[in-house]
Amino acid sequence: MIRFEHVTKRYADGTTAVDDLSFEVAEGELVTLVGPSGCGKTTTMKMVNRLIEPTEGRILLGGEDISTVDPVELRRRIGYVIQQVGLFPHKTVLDNTATVPHLLGWQRKKARARAAELLDLVGLDPSVYGDRYPDQLSGGQRQRVGVARALAADPPVLLMDEPFGAVDPVVRERLQNEFLRLQSQVRKTVLFVTHDIEEAVRLGDRIAVYGEGRIEQFDPPAAVLGSPATPYVADFVGADRGLKRLSVTSIEAGDLEQPPVVHLDDTVGRAAARLAAEGARWAVVLDDAEHLHGWVSADALTGAGTAGGVRKGEATVRDHARHMDAWLPVGASLKQAFSTMLQHDAGWIAVLDGAGADHFLGVLTPARLHEALRRSTAAEAVGAARAEVEVETVADV
Ligand SMILES: Nc1ncnc2c1ncn2[C@@H]1O[C@H](COP(=O)(O)OP(=O)(O)OP(=O)(O)O)[C@@H](O)[C@H]1O
To answer: Taking every annotated instance into account, which residue ranges of this chain make up the domain ABC transporter (predicted)?
Structure first.
């Protein structure tokens, strides 16, 4: 969709901001450009909408050389969001959002209806915020209006230059999440500039890590964190890249351990025998519908056995099972898994199929989590699926 072919930009004073850059962004892909200040990210982006002209090379948009397209016409196909949102202070939020459709000659009513739809999409109720002026909004709300405005004419391409740079970390994370949700709906081709590696990892389908005017690595986040291409990239992504990697590695069914499973209505005797047969100290407890209820320990079951006769009828697992809320759907990140374990002070979490049925798939323990991370790194190195890769792990103690 966007293709850079040997693009170089030298400014009049001799500064080479971008040096022989070649890369491609696929349709619907979100590529983050990350790197230290002055490495050429903004120059790269501004060449796409011809705010800056390259010295050498060419840029293609949907196969068309952009140097042959009228810049004004070109910019209508490209939404642009910058840090200083640049809203018109004397126009309402609704009119700001409707600016581009208006310029495109849409009728006022249609333009405003579209603007209201977009404000809704970015999480601003148009009936509450539509008639306000920009200085009556918080920084985060202004950024959302900026995103809504950029999307108003439904351009296939979005350029975003540090759009969330000016807001505090909490609002920033919320805007990032909202933007990811939005992108999953609108699937624009996005170039997103940031100097924050966390943001690049979080948002990018692929990340371009910039050195001085050059791309040092252009890969999916997990590959940048797992196998940095150069010492520079390793240094840039940080010594804690293993931790960052947790957030881009998801739980797969093959990562899970399979403890014994018993049901709420199983008799204590039957459940205890089951655990004894497998030499297990605890079992997962499911209800009739195969949904997670919790767990039961071998000690509770055997203790219960010796106290038999207290109740009428035979005791069941229901009498001794404990509820368990520490669970995640398969596909959640290993970081969420680790965080859930800590939050519930649990030695393992249950993993459910998450496809609406919420069937129990297995459990993730710290050892399995570590193994999953190692296998995903190894799988990437050889270009295989994680399930196909074996790694040696530290033996259980
Ligand atoms: N108009 C200009 N004339 C001369 N040099 C320029 C001009 N604009 C940018 N530069 C230089 O080009 C280099 C790349 O700048 P650019 O703005 O692309 O970097 P950046 O990676 O976006 O940085 P930041 O994260 O600080 O915005 C820098 O050395 C900058 O000083």
So the answer is: 2-237
